[in-house]
Amino acid sequence: MTAISVQQGSNCVVGQFRAMASPCEILLETQDKALCHRLTELAAAEAERIEQKYSRYRLDSVLSRINANAGSWQTLDSETVQLLAFAQQCYQLSDGLFDISSGILRRIWQFDGSNNIASQADIDLLLPFIGWHKVKLDAQQLFLPAGMELDLGGIAKEYAVDKVLQLLQQQFLGQQVPSLVVNFGGDMRCNRPREDGSLWRIGIENPTLADQAISAVGLNQGALATSGDSRRFLLKNGVRYSHILNPKTGWPISNAPRSVTVAAPNCLLVGMLATTALLQGADAEAFLQAQGLKYWLLT
């Protein structure tokens, strides 16, 4: 059972727990702590369900079974098909930069702050097993070529935020839904403006001081997600290597902002856009400008 805490905030109640290796919180514009506790329990259970289903760290997860059965056609449940279909759209819209088959590169890249850089020879051995275009997906089945594997770490948490917000709103059928924010480790979504007209103030992580916020943005509806390398990187000969890897080359992206935050209607979309922007390197801002959405860059 996930440990839950509920605290009274300023004009709101905050429920907290941990999931997906992140601190998670539910901010609810109410003074009803019992209601917040019940909603936080639902949120924690849904986050745990999604984590168990799509974690690559669990041998019994759907994702692990998909990877273990690479080389043969596999029948999938509808939720998994929809999530993979979204990943396929991300791959197409990003011109192949957002690729959930590139997680295999973690075998040779360990972003632990050390100076252990992967060799080109090691990268060349893995590149043939990367590329979503090699995967076949239809309405019910998936064919993952032998030797390849999928990693949903780039979208699972954002998906969980969207699903949790949907679930919490469903608890108010026939009633007015209060303003609430679902925040999973900085990936968040708000359902509607607050009654008092104020904004939820959200801190953007400082890329040089990972536990501090460098600025705050106001959120009254929609989603925010941040992608950056403040916590995971390598450093060698004065060169910083980001953990954001280009799936086409196998090497970390260069000349990118240290952090990108994007605002959009839902969390799945903003997470994809923030990561894809970083993958553009020096062209990150031009990419974001072309999307016509609000964004914040930290360099």
Give the SSE map.
Elements: E1 5-8, E2 13-19, E3 22-28, H1 33-54, H2 62-68, E4 73-75, H3 78-93, H4 120-126, E5 136-137, E6 141-143, H5 156-169, E7 180-184, E8 187-190, E9 200-205, E10 213-219, E11 222-228, E12 233-236, E13 239-242, E14 259-264, H6 267-279, H7 284-291, E15 295-298
Antiparallel strand pairs: 1-2, 2-3, 3-7, 4-6, 5-6, 7-8, 8-11, 9-10, 11-14, 12-13, 14-15
Helix pairs in contact: 1-5, 5-6, 6-7
Protein name: FAD:protein FMN transferase
InterPro entries: ApbE (IPR024932), ApbE-like_sf (IPR003374)
GO molecular function: metal ion binding; transferase activity
Summarize the structure.
Helix content is 29%, strand content 24%.
What does this structure look like?
This is FAD:protein FMN transferase. Keywords: FAD, Flavoprotein, Lipoprotein, Magnesium, Metal-binding, Transferase. Belongs to the ApbE family. It is an enzyme of class 2 (transferase). Its EC number is 2.7.1.180. This protein is an alpha+beta fold. The protein has two domains: 5-55 and 155-298, ApbE-like domains (T-fold), CATH 3.10.520; 62-143, ApbE-like superfamily (T-fold, Orthogonal Bundle), CATH 1.10.3980. Helix content is 29%, strand content 24%. It is built from seven helices and 15 strands. The chain has helices spanning 33-54, 62-68, 78-93, 120-126, 156-169, 267-279, 284-291; strands spanning 5-8, 13-19, 22-28, 73-75, 136-137, 141-143, 180-184, 187-190, 200-205, 213-219, 222-228, 233-236, 239-242, 259-264, 295-298. The strands form four sheets. Strands 1-2-3-7-8-11-14-15 form an eight-stranded antiparallel sheet, with helices on one face. Strands 4-6-5 form a three-stranded antiparallel sheet. It is globular, with a radius of gyration of 20 Å.
